[in-house]
TrEMBL record:
The lineage of its organism: Bacteria, Bacillati, Actinomycetota, Actinomycetes, Mycobacteriales. Transmembrane segments: none annotated. InterPro entries: Nuclease_put_TT1808, Restrct_endonuc-II-like, Uma2. Keywords: Endonuclease, Hydrolase, Nuclease. The keyword Nucleus does not apply. CDD domains: DUF820-like. Gene3D superfamilies: tt1808, chain A (3.90.1570.10). It comes from Fodinicola feengrottensis. This is Uma2 family endonuclease. One of its GO terms (molecular function) is endonuclease activity.
Length: 194
């Protein structure tokens, strides 16, 4: 994960922060480009375990999804302001809040699957940004060893740890709707691989 200012990326001396409109000029190079308060974050393409977890989690959430909600796999833009655009690995929002291009309000659930290059950012910078946005549930999945960490937003606007489970342990929740997750099952056929 690399964080850049406008000057570092373009050589510009304008000193202005990045805006969502600047993301359209980013190269289609397989990297993920996100903004938090005008700071550009660039992540490399994810690996196999990462993608397997996203697919399995999407299937699980989609199967339980009520009609008033929708589940989307990233990259899909969450754009609550002109200076912030995040692309959770998986997100759940109210069906009517989505546009064809983005989700302009906080999702009900944001999920990030950790990668070596994104772990520190996902657990700190993005977590804080999701809290400021008002994302009521934030899940973090660590692929190795497989572990699910679940946070809920308190009335004070900070995340509180709800659960931290691994392997064949079970987590059941009603946020954003009733669903049960077993971390090891998210790996599919990769569960028995080192």
């Amino acid at each position: 994960m690399v964080v850049m200012t406008q000057e570092a990326f373009t050589g510009s001396t304008s000193g202005r922060p990045f805006a969502v409109r600047d993301l359209e000029a980013m190269p289609a190079d397989g990297h993920r480009y996100e903004l938090i308060d005008g700071m550009l974050m660039v992540s490399p393409a994810p690996g196999r375990r990462h993608q397997k977890i996203i697919g399995k989690l999407y299937g699980l959430l989609e199967a339980a999804c009520p009609p008033e909600c929708d589940v989307v796999v990233g990259p899909f833009a969450v754009q609550p302001s002109y200076s912030t655009e995040l692309q959770p690995d998986v997100l759940v929002g109210r069906f009517d809040d989505f546009t064809e291009k983005n989700l302009p309000v906080a999702p009900l659930l944001a999920v990030e699957v950790l990668s070596p290059s994104t772990a520190l950012n996902d657990l700190n910078t993005k977590k804080a940004a999701y809290a400021r946005m008002g994302v009521t549930s934030y899940w973090v999945v660590n692929p190795t060893p497989i572990e699910l960490t679940v946070f809920k937003l308190t009335s004070e606007g900070a995340y509180e740890l709800v659960a931290k489970i691994s392997g064949d342990e079970t987590f059941s929740t009603d946020r954003p709707y009733p669903v049960t997750v077993v971390p090891r099952a998210l790996l599919g056929r990769l569960a028995d691989q080192p």
